[in-house]
Amino acid sequence: xxxxxxxxPSDRVVAVNAAWIAFAEANxxxxxxxxxxxxSLWTFIANRTVQELYRTLFHRVRATEHQVTLPxxxxxxxxxxxxxxxxxxxxxxQGTLNCQVQLLREEAQPPAALSLYAAMARRAITPRxxxxxxxxxxxxxxxxxxxxxxxxxxxxxxxxxDEALGRQPLLFTEPVRPITHGLCPECALAVYAELE
Length: 196
Ligand SMILES: [Zn+2]
Fold this sequence. Notes:
Elements: E1 3-7, E2 13-16, H1 18-26, H2 33-36, H3 48-64, E3 68-73, E4 79-89, E5 97-108, H4 112-125, H5 127-130, E6 144-147, E7 153-154, E8 158-159, H6 161-167, E9 179-182, H7 185-195
Parallel strand pairs: 6-9
Antiparallel strand pairs: 1-2, 1-5, 3-4, 4-5, 7-8
Helix pairs in contact: 3-7
Bound molecules: zinc ion.
């Protein structure tokens, strides 16, 4: 069963289905139902580029009343999840959106993914590195950027984890560069092309 959630015209989460709850529990997601319901979706999407993408997508669906489906990745430390997000009109007041997330296939992560996700988890609990916000600043080059959409890394070009390690074998040796999320040019182009 696919996970799905319903957004009201102001992008607040007003319903999630049973599969969504099961997925959140299985993945120990911080955003369990009680904390999600009634909240603005934008509370959960910190990255501005990704927010922009979702806003464009939602605007498009509301304006055309046509469903749009986009592929994306939702990885865990051990599995690569190839997913599709379908956004269409939902039941409720005008502008209600039904977002359905479908798992297309899963593949095992390369072992190096464990190091990457461990580094990301550490970042999440380290207040100092958490505050890195100025991507245009002089430290921009020190950040390791992960594409929020396809989960590739920007290491001498955008590539999967194994390839990144081939290019920089010491990538995940301590201290790991601070990690941030962005959107790679390929994903940006593909997504916006779909929305044209
Ligand atoms: Zn990407």
